[in-house]
Amino acid sequence: MESQNIRDKKDKVAEERVHLIVFKLGNEEYGVRIDQVKEVTITPEITRMPKTPSFIKGVSNIRGDIIAIMNLEERFRIERPSGEIPTHSYTLVMEAKDYTMGFIVYEVPQSLTLPVSNIDKAPSFIQDININENFIEGIGKHEDRLIIVLDIFKILTSDEVLQLKS
Amino acid sequence: MKSRDQEYKEIFIAEALEYYDALNRHISDLEKSPEDEQLLAEVFRLLHNLKANAKAIGYETIADISHKLETAFGLIRNKELIFSDEVVTVLFDGIDLLGEMITNIDGTKEVEPSPALLRNLDIIINSQGENTSELSKVQKYYTSKNLSLSDLIYIQIKKLDHLLNLVGELIIDRDRIFSISKELDHDDLKSVSAHLYRITEELQYSVMDARLVNVGSLFNKFPRIVRDIAVAEKKEINLEISGSDIQIDRNILQIITDSLLHLMRNAISHGIEKADIRKKAKKTPQGNVTLSAQNDRDTVILKLIDDGKGIDQQEVRRAIVQRGFLSADAAEDLRDTEVLSYLFEPGFSLAKEVTEVSGRGVGLDVVKNAIDSIGGRIKVDSKKGEGTTFTLFLPTSIAVKGALLCQVEENFYAIPLMHTDSVVALPTSELHEVGELLVADINGETITIVSLRELFNNDITQYSVKKNQLDGDAQNIIIVTYNNRKLGLIVDKLLRQQDIVIKALSKPVNTIEIYAGVTLLGSGKVCLVLDVAAITRYFIARR
């Protein structure tokens, strides 16, 4: 649906731009639309929550709201280039329909604006790799960088996350 | 436990006797100053309430006599009946009769109203004081004026709060005594501490029970409030109330009172349309508002439903942009449910004009804050043209619950005291392996002992604990009870007892069964609250 939107918008205004928050997972750069991001913060203390999948790191207290924290690298089974987990990390706080969730990233996320026309709809072969189930909204190109644009809403509502059961 | 009917009856009698006392006082004053309109109004009000209460609980004769007296005072108020000596006598007789009947509700013989008195009452009502000569002398066979004090007392809620705190502290000491008595292995001490145990438990439940009130005590105020708002707004409202007998902690009810009032004002002033508009929309000319309560496990669900014009999503979107919450594009992209959630943002109001009762800038954010503060939840659903429903999910008992804090690995966990039975330190040697489980004999009872560490780190189907996996010579065990079943939970460390405010977990982690919620400790540390019921169910099923 989102990619449909992108095409529709492309037809209307050629110069329409999209504002992304860009972060690194593994070796690649990923982006999410800025309006899906509530805030970026230094990862607060995470309380481990037994009986959840390992990619759910636990829950954190962000300004009185207690939200679940997910590690997208683990979720998508992306290997860290160095193999080591940095001690310092940031949390992207994202909003889904009726809840909020945090995603861990290890480098300061950047803000980037690019023309919608620079985002190609994800080619079908991408469906084969680990980031499955149409989580990819498209592939953005900026100068010589390649940015994988994620549809965070689909990640948040995917059955796998919602049907967490002990 | 007394049945609810019995409880209602006692409350009725106590209230009715109070009314009776007040009536006696006022009518004596009235005799001295018959012109006092305030006194008359008060007498009228008391009789009216008495009539309504008696009718509600099914005492038709009391309702009937009250009605006759009310009519008589109504006439006096309208100056259609003169407060003459003869009339006064009849009225005094009538009130005495009421008192007699109320005090004898619980008695063996039911008081029959004297026919002569009834006739006298009818005469003064119907002839409007012209034919006082027809009044017959009423023989007072119910003259025994017993002085009696009410069975109900009023108590400041503050005192109950204090009592609950004391019970909490008592329970900590009780648990310590309990474990010391085990260590000392002294028979007398053990039996005393077991007794102490039961008593404190009962004490705790009694205090919590004493704090419960019917939702009706708040709901019953609404017919009048709704009427007043409706009159001010020139609208006709049909109010339906259901679930008045659902019970809830008095403080919780107190905290949401203003919120409910605010929502009701909104519903009538902004929700319900004027009669002519309703007719065009093929609705009944009267607006329908429903206030309902129901129980769901430990939650009381209050609903306020109106069949008014509903909330216009587009209007909200425009307001979101206008008030600078989001850009126009972003507002357009919002999902419908998300749009409605902005209604709870501070400073967000859709009211275009300030009416007498609403639209004064007290927004829904205040309502949301109040409900959050007691660990509740609020939800709004609305369909344009069809109406709006506000749903409040409230804890039955005050959200501040006593809990036992413990540590397993690096995490803190809270177990609500409601479910804790006792705390023991048991030598590992007293644990026995039965299949994949451990059991122990504690106070003559065979109890399944569960290692929380193993439970947390393994799939439930693979749960298996052998004694050699346990650290140390002794295990800290919290005995929990659920549905009369006991289970021992091995924890790494017992921390302390503390009052906690339980918050619900949000998606997507809200479906993990073993957690009842989460709480923030004073240090800001997140502490998970264990759902004893769910954990017990696992292991009871296994056995």
Short description:
Chain A has 166 residues and is of the alpha+beta class. Chain A is built from 4 helices and 12 strands, in the order H-E-E-E-E-E-E-H-E-E-E-E-E-E-H-H. The relative contact order of chain A is 0.22.
Feature tags:
heterodimer; A: 166 residues; alpha+beta; 6-stranded mixed beta sheet; 15% helix; B: 543 residues; Four Helix Bundle (Hemerythrin (Met), subunit A); Helix Hairpins; Heat Shock Protein 90; 4 domains; 5-stranded mixed beta sheet; 17 helices; 45% helix; 22% strand; flat
Plain-language structure description:
- Helix content of chain A is 15%, strand content 43%.
- Chain A is an alpha+beta fold and 166 residues long.
- Chain A has one domain (2-162): OB fold (Dihydrolipoamide Acetyltransferase, E2P) (Beta Barrel).
- In chain A, strand 5 (56-62) and strand 6 form a beta hairpin.
- The radius of gyration of chain A is 16 Å and the shape is globular.
- The mean pLDDT of chain A is 79.
- Chain B is α+β, with helices and mostly antiparallel strands and 543 residues long.
- Chain B has 4 domains: 4-134, Up-down Bundle (Four Helix Bundle (Hemerythrin (Met), subunit A)), CATH 1.20.120; 157-211, Histidine kinase  CheA-like, homodimeric domain (Helix Hairpins), CATH 1.10.287; 213-311 and 350-395, 2-Layer Sandwich (Heat Shock Protein 90), CATH 3.30.565.10; 400-542, CheA-289, Domain 4 (OB fold (Dihydrolipoamide Acetyltransferase, E2P)), CATH 2.40.50.
- Chain B has helices spanning 4-32, 37-57, 60-77, 85-103, 115-126, 157-184, 187-210, 216-219, 222-233, 250-271, 275-280, 313-322, 328-333, 336-341, 364-373, 452-457, 532-542; strands spanning 212-214, 237-242, 247-249, 287-296, 299-306, 377-383, 387-395, 400-408, 411-416, 420-427, 431-434, 437-442, 445-451, 474-482, 485-491, 493-501, 515-520, 526-530.
- Chain B has a 6-stranded mixed sheet with strand order 10-14-15-13-12-11.
- The A-B interface holds A 35, 45, 47-52, 56, 59-61, 64-68, 96-101, 156, 161-166 and B 326, 330, 333, 335, 337-338, 341, 409-411, 455-457, 460, 503, 505-509, 511-515, 518, 520, 524-528.
